[in-house]
């Protein structure tokens, strides 16, 4: 998943991620340019899901 795809859909995804994983906070979902690995690491840590699983689920949202 490339950076532009993440940035373009991040606001929608934040809402969907918060609905599915209530333990995620705004700080967990904070995305900064050049810190992709940190973003995915925080989300993976809180959800217990692998990045590939999260990406597949997010892409399935449309």
Polypeptide structure, described:
The chain has 62 residues and is an all-alpha fold. Helix content is 65%, strand content 0%. The chain contains three helices and no strands. The longest helix has 18 residues, at 3-20. It starts with a helix and ends with a helix. The mean pLDDT is 86.
Mind describing the biggest β-sheet? none
Radius of gyration based on Cα positions: 10 Å
Write down the overall mean pLDDT. Answer: 86
Q: What is the beta-strand fraction?
A: under 5%
Record field, number of beta strands? 0
Termini separation comes to 14 Å
Poorly predicted ranges: none
Structural class: mainly alpha
The count of helical stretches stands at: 3
Helix content: 55-70%
* String of helices and strands: HHH
Q: Overall 3D geometry?
A: globular
Lay out the secondary structure:
Layout: H1 3-20, H2 36-47, H3 51-60
Short summary:
This protein is mainly alpha-helical. 65% of the residues lie in helices and 0% in strands.
């Amino acid at each position: 998943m490339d950076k532009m795809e993440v940035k373009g859909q991040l606001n929608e995804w934040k809402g969907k991620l918060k609905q599915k994983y209530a333990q995620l906070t705004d700080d967990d979902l904070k995305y900064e340019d050049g810190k992709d690995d940190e973003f995915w690491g925080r989300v993976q840590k809180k959800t217990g899901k692998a990045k590939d699983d999260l990406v597949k689920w997010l892409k399935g949202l449309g």
